[in-house]
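Renewal narrative, Specific Aim 1. Our central claim is that a sequence can be written position by position from structural information alone. The example that follows is taken directly from our test logs and has not been curated for this report. It begins with the structure tokens describing the chain, in the order in which they were read.
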């Protein structure tokens, strides 16, 4: 983005020089006067006008909108700037462009865009492009030689930027496909290019033939970019090779890494209690990356901020600074009072439509084993569940589809005890509902880790099909009973290992319940919902069992799975929080990393944080 901005600035400077030389061919003194006047205008804008605008912003109380008087004054300044540069001898658009550059990034820019964007983008911009099309006379391009020159210009112009960008990317050791993709993107033409061409035509710098050729070049080069980029760049398939993508594969004596996502301060207490229940200690410490998710609005670029310091000039963060401070303080206080826990607070500012990319990229780069997402519904005063923001659900669904590790969706109904979990008195009763499959094994693995905490009582309820249970026939879908004996054997082995390892732990209770259908399953779960503080269940993705048959017919939230949706419904378990886990699907049934023979998994390397400001690509880049 910075390179594109510099490119546009250079284009305007060259255009101003071209116009000046075209209008003053016979007088070098006049040309010098125009150049010096333009430079003086730019300096005045930077050192006089910009400080005045900064004063306007500073005089506005925090949290209030910019005064309408200031807005009108700034819009008047745009017209005055255009008039000055037109009188100097360059072009009125050059003055408006420079005035736009000096507007500081913040609430003023957001306010100007909110007031002008609909009018400019919806009315003026289409009219401008339509007028550009009417001015383009393709018939002015005469002769086969001219068309060959046109094709040559397209090829050379396109290849030049691709090769140049690729060489720069190779210098910085970027992957080859990313360098080629960036080269394609640098060829895109937009509004600035069309303005330059129109100004050049109006000032007689370009004749009709040259103008038509350049317009065709811009259209063709821009049109072929999206298909090429879509075909060659697949960011969701590019994962770093690390093995601890699941809780089940995390070693008991290694660091356990969690990425906890926060939308509002209301999510904080339950997530902190869940983290404490995860049993961090000196033998198996826990590293928690806490990400405050903030929607990107206005013209500012997306950012991922590491809170080593509290400085940030991003307008989206400024509007939610109080929330971010509250969240950061809560987790810093938790870190100070906990043992074996390190917390790194971050803020991700991006549109909800691409927020999952930031979450998954961060999880991949930090090599976390678990992503915790708040459920998009919150409990009301009367015990019901109401949606807070539909976009939260979209973020959760996108993360489930593309996460590089295990994902947990937390249905928050409160998980705070009267005393801290670090005391010897058990304050939380956790239950695992086990039906079988990778997701349920992941749920059992997480609960197994919790069982080592002296303040946790764990109950594992394994549901076993009875003699009257009917096997479901559905080719291509895993069936717990008959269709996948290997999956069933994995369940048996893991449950047996769990029972052996926890046989002497009095706080762990294992029960087997025989049921034949979904109705009996619901009845069995209802009989235990008031005796626990937290249910941990697997999402059951790809599994088909007669014990849950029919439960998905009335499902409101399929992303939770059949059992998770049942537990999260408004008329069920009104006081019990629910954690629904989906195991990383990139592991085969033996738990080995899936990959091609050409790209075997490599050993883990320590992650180093890169300190930068903005990130136009998928790679998460951090700013202090």
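The sequence written for that structure reads:
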């Amino acid at each position: 983005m910075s390179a594109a901005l510099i490119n546009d600035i250079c284009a305007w400077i060259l255009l101003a020089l071209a116009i000046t030389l075209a209008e003053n061919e016979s007088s070098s003194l006049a040309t010098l006067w125009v150049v010096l006047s333009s430079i003086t205008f730019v300096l005045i804008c930077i050192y006089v006008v910009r400080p005045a605008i900064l004063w306007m912003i500073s005089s506005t109380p925090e949290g209030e909108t910019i005064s309408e008087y200031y807005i009108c004054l700034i819009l008047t300044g745009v017209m005055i700037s255009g008039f000055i540069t037109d009188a100097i001898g360059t072009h009125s658009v050059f003055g408006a462009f420079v005035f736009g550059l000096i507007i500081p990034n913040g609430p003023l820019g957001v306010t100007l865009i909110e007031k002008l964007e609909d009018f400019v983008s919806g009315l003026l911009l289409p009219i401008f492009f339509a007028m550009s099309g009417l001015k383009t006379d393709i018939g002015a391009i005469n002769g086969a030689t001219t068309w060959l020159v046109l094709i040559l210009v397209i090829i050379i112009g396109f290849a030049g930027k691709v090769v140049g960008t690729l060489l720069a990317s190779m210098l910085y050791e970027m992957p080859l496909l990313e360098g080629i993709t960036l080269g394609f993107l640098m060829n895109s033409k937009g509004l600035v290019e069309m303005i330059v061409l129109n100004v050049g035509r109006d000032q007689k710098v370009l004749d009709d033939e040259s103008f038509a050729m350049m317009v065709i070049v811009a259209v063709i080069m821009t049109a072929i970019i999206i298909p090429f980029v879509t075909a060659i760049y697949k960011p969701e398939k590019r994962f770093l090779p690390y093995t601890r993508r699941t809780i089940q594969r995390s070693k008991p004596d290694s660091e356990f890494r969690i990425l906890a996502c926060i939308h509002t301060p209301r999510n904080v207490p339950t997530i902190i209690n869940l983290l404490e229940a995860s049993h961090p200690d000196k033998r198996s410490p826990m590293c928690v990356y806490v990400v405050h998710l903030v929607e990107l609005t206005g013209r500012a670029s997306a950012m991922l901020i590491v809170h080593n310091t509290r400085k940030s000039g991003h307008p989206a963060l400024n509007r939610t600074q109080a929330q971010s401070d509250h969240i950061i303080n809560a987790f810093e206080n938790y870190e100070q009072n906990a043992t074996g826990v390190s917390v790194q607070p971050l803020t991700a500012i991006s549109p909800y439509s691409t927020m999952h990319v930031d979450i998954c990229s961060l999880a991949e780069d930090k090599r976390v084993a678990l992503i915790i997402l708040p459920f998009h519904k919150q409990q009301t005063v009367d015990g019901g569940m109401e949606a807070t923001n539909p976009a939260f659900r979209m973020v959760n669904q996108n993360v489930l589809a593309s996460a590089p590790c295990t994902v947990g969706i937390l249905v928050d109904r409160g998980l705070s005890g009267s005393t801290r979990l670090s005391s010897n008195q058990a304050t939380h009763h956790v239950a695992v509902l086990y039906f079988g499959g990778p997701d349920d094994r992941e749920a059992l693995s997480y609960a197994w880790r919790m069982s080592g905490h002296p303040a946790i009582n764990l109950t594992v309820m394994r549901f076993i099909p009875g003699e009257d249970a009917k096997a479901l026939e559905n080719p291509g879908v895993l069936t717990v009973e008959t269709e996948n004996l290997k999956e069933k054997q994995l369940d048996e082995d893991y449950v047996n290992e769990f029972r052996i390892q926890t046989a002497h732990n009095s706080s762990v209770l294992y029960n087997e319940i025989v049921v034949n259908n979904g109705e009996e399953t619901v009845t069995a779960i209802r009989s235990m919902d008031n005796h626990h503080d937290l249910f941990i269940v697997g999402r059951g993705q790809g599994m088909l069992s007669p014990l849950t048959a029919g439960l998905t017919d009335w499902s409101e939230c399929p992303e939770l799975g059949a059992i998770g949706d049942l537990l999260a419904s408004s008329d069920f378990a009104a006081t019990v929080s629910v954690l629904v886990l989906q195991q990383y699907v990139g592991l085969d049934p033996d738990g080995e990393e899936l990959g091609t023979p050409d790209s075997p998994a490599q050993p883990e390397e320590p992650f180093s944080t890169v300190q930068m400001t903005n990130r136009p690509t998928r790679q998460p880049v951090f700013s202090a």
